[in-house]
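Sequence dictates fold. Below is an illustrative record:

_____
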Amino acid sequence: MRIDVAENMIQTRLDSGSDMPILIAEDDADTREKLAALLAKHRYHVIQAADGREALNYLQAGLKHGMPMPALLITDLNMPNLDGMQLIAEMARTEALAVLPIIEASGTSVASLHMGGLTAPMRRCLPGGPMDKRRGRTGGVVGSFVEPIRGEKEKEFLAVVAQHATRTRAR
């Protein structure tokens, strides 16, 4: 997504009066819509991004315009343009984005990614990880879920969302 499109998303958020939405970065449109519908059913405001690049552009446009950051990012791990792990790494480079809590929700088993060594090194460097000695940090990966999210997993997912995004509830 281009920056001007991200800025239009920011303006839409301003016009709607919604504050601190949950940002979903998911390349599969059906999965993204299902997650958005689940969250909307529980009265959360949702912003959707089709991949990590679009999500990062949205976040950077928000910073540029002095907007509050979303309360939570839910990201797929395997996406074109900028995957979830690259998105998390890019966010960690900017203080204002590094504090954002993140939920990994992917069709790929997070455990298999850990076994491949793809996310374990990243987690150590994330805000709040073992290598982050700064106090009061709230960002970083706070939950990992394999899609589809339904049944008991849905309850667990919503509990993690509620814990980290209570300020996003619609009035």
